[in-house]
Amino acid sequence: MHSNFAPCSDTYNTVTLPRDSEGLDGSDVDVYLMPGTTDPNAVLFGGFYRVAVDTQANQVRDTHAFTTSCVALTTQTPNAAERTAALGITQIIGDLPTEIHVFQSFTARLPVFVSSRSGIWEVAGADVHLVQGAAPSH
Predict the structure, then answer these.
(1) CA 96, CA 77: separation in Å to the nearest integer?
(2) Do strands 119-124 and 127-133 pair parallel, antiparallel, or not at all (unpaired)?
(3) 15: number of Cβ within 10 Å
(4) pTM > 0.85: yes or no
(5) Cys bridge to 8: 45, 70, 76, 84, which one at CB 3.0-4.6 A?
(6) Is residue 34 in some structural domain?
(7) Is 45 exposed, middle or buried (0-12, 13-18, 19+ CB in 10 A)?
């Protein structure tokens, strides 16, 4: 496990996904650790991790933290008759939105605007596009 694992929830959910092809380090499965909540208005962005596992060697090869802190946004508005139109968050660990932004856009059923070094991105479910800035060239 990641030596700096910092849980952002008392409960966690997991998703295990086999990779299409084995990584150079032998990783063939990704395990996502996802903070849980029972609050229907909470959208958690902090505390997500991806653990790369080599199932042949029964070893964790890499652990990736998607954030550096616990971040929770709310879909609740001061006026109960109004609906939140979108969520906004910064991405300081990379230049692009991640699968966590896509997952939370689906979960909240809202677009997520992600501000990164490369610009501002809109994530609306599986549709990710650059709104302002220049896409990284890597």
Answers:
(1) 28
(2) antiparallel
(3) 11
(4) yes
(5) 70
(6) yes
(7) buried
